[in-house]
């Protein structure tokens, strides 16, 4: 167990190193740089001398390995640097945005997980029209562009019915009710596709499990359908669904940009987008580092879930 | 010296125009219940409302007034009262300066007399030396407006008097030191001593100051009253929140649903805002059209002939284009300014009526009766790409084959257009004083003159304008405008405005041709 933990930790560190190095290299390869972005933003243009001066000020004239080493050195001392444009600490900037992002992502996972699994089970048990309906809804959910759905939801539920706010995010600590109200429309938008996907995956996995011999045996022993499904079949069928939820979480990390944009949620997706557009390397590295940490932790949670759900994995 | 000054001015003015092109924004957001917005009540002069929430679609990169751009004016003006305030009717009224004037002739010496008893939000006093230090900081910061002050000397003549001695005539010091150009807002001594902090905090002498604890950079910025403000009676709100909502449709939804009182809108949503019953204020701000950059015929020989350039103007059916693309949002124009703006002359608008035959005659006389190809680059903003397509269709009728390069990447477009790679390019340009417009739009080193056309007559007029004032200056502005129109350096097509939306919770939503930007100082609780 200890050996496995050490192995996981080491592989995680390697992953973090690789991702942050790759990010540095990719940012350097992208056309333009922060010096140009700053000069363009402040004065609309620049002379070669001004450009070189700005590069020196930002440390961009140093070699890539040296720049990376400086960044890593700061990280090991607890700092991820500062925003090149306004001097704000990257840690502080990301800290203020992780709450909104996690709120949206976790709420989306919960909603899409619960609704998707429920729909999948019902569909697997009933089959027929309901099964086909889940298929249709799946395709529909995946086909509807989320920016369009978001605009429709805003028009309907915010503008016409005044049931939910059209934009903005209220921290839970400030007002839990407003926090929840503000999440409804963005989460509905993001869940549309995810629910469909999870429902279909659950239905397929559940149908497969229900056709296995051990389920027939359980039924023969007189167990109720509810017990067979919820206590035995679902546990087996849940493995691919857990994988899917893990993937969904990772994809939502950076995939919420459009929803954050439309609902004006100050999340990490927006921050990543802004930083990338302006070549703000410390911020890009900070976001990449944070995303990688979340991915690593998500993988760990998924792995642990496998062990809990599947004795074979536990035994191996 | 002159070279470096004009070069840097040119660079700054690219940004001025770009700012105008991109919409002159400001921003911020907070997600509070709708009922908290615009809960104003009270009495005028001391009328105090609850929270004013305003929305814009652009986030400021910095709050430092020396480095911020025009788009960020809302974010800076609340905390940094400028030396001179431009009222919504365009008049200039005292801000931190009680009075100001040029001395002598030639627009090279400008004197500001500061208000007495003014304190910054940190409690320190406003002195002439603070202003001098601030202006020096502006120049050293090399921000958007620094070139307009570069080469100038700043002197504290006495504790409350500042004298600016310009390196070259500058007839627009009063305009430059208003909130519109950001650098008029003064920073305290402590703020100047630690400029890094100015990116995310404020140290001004304005009616409000940033409450960093209630703000999230890039999302919403909360301003609370400055306890040391010299005119506490004029503070209209307990709190002002500027929200950043980047999606223009969401900006409208935010105001519609009562989550905000005021918003900087977008032409795309202007009609919907009116239909939703919001107050919509919009004054002409931009002209959009073609820069015929190659007036010497270096890249496209036909453009070297003024008759060809005039033919393109005659061959443009502005009314049809406006009706099709800008109905209710803009007006046809022949000029590089907006109605009642700097240098505007109503008579010039009849210079180029749509006349295909006249256009063909001119082309034939110039030796291009069988037509020619013209390459043009366009960005995608302000519908310029669609406007270019409309011109392509219209100019086919006079034999001109417009070869359009549509560059969605604004930076790539800017490199192509301002780098002199195309003989013509589409643009939207903000209405600014003619003296400030020159180094950007038409003088030899101007960014919008990338092939550096020099015209002795134009330069002479410009130099005369730089040392003039009052009616003489206005007349010279019109002469310059007329000269440019008759020389057909451009094909202006339409003037459009920047719309602002407001709910009935507020009043003071007013703009004008000489102040098309909404001034937050004037927004008050309704009633």
UniProtKB/TrEMBL annotation, chain A:
Coiled-coil region list: none
Segments forming domain ABC transmembrane type-1: 98-302
Subcellular location: Cell membrane
Signal sequence coordinates: none
InterPro entries: BPD_transp_1_N (IPR045621), MetI-like (IPR000515), MetI-like_sf (IPR035906)
PROSITE patterns: ABC_TM1 (PS50928)
Claim: Transferase is one of the keywords in the record: no
Lipid bilayer topology: Multi-pass membrane protein
Keyword Transmembrane part of the UniProt annotation: yes
Pfam family, any one: BPD_transp_1
Ranges that cross the membrane: 104-125, 137-159, 179-199, 237-259, 287-309
Highest taxon in the source lineage: Bacteria
Keywords recorded for this protein, A-Z: Cell membrane, Membrane, Transmembrane, Transmembrane helix, Transport
Family: Belongs to the binding-protein-dependent transport system permease family.
PANTHER family documented for this protein: DIPEPTIDE TRANSPORT SYSTEM PERMEASE PROTEIN DPPB-RELATED, PEPTIDE ABC TRANSPORTER PERMEASE PROTEIN
Name used for this protein in its record: ABC transporter permease
